[in-house]
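Appendix B. Raw example, untouched.
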Amino acid sequence: MTVEVWGLYLVAYLLVCVTPGPNVLFVMSQSVWRGRTAGLTAALGIETANVVFWALSALGLAAAIAASQSLFMILKWVGAAYLAWLGIQAIAGSFKPADAHAPNPRAADNGFRDGLVVGLSNPKALLFFIALLPQFVDPARPALAQILTLALTSVVIDFSTNAAYALAAGAMRRVLARGSVRRWFERCVGGVFLWLAAAAALYRRAA
């Protein structure tokens, strides 16, 4: 892969990652609810899911999953249900006392688990990797080296940006944990997750 192509990919992917989306919202919410460590491990869980998608794309399995109507529908509805559960959990949590959100020893494990599930159950992410990969791989050059370069670049950029959002949210934890501020923050986050769940449920692949 030429430096010019890699640089173009670097800029394009960086712009995608810094734009707040479901993953960023989830990572930030974990930092606020469970502490900074949970936010960072949630980012690690999401990145693990992205590595899985990269591996599937490299092996050609991602396209087969996307082409299968039944598998795609299962993935879509699992993702929608999980996002809806997160939204309901956030709204319900807004009615709990502040000490119910104190960090606990299992926060890191829960953050990684939830981040992994959120990442794996996102059908748009699967289609994104399928659409993105061929655009930057030169068929005249060794494919494996190019795919590894793109994958490593993606992992570093994505984890770094999510970790930055997690640390920023962790720094705001004291402010966001205050009484009415915490309650409205959690309700807003819950509402966004429910909206994302509805969007995932209504999502249709391009013909």
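End of appendix B.
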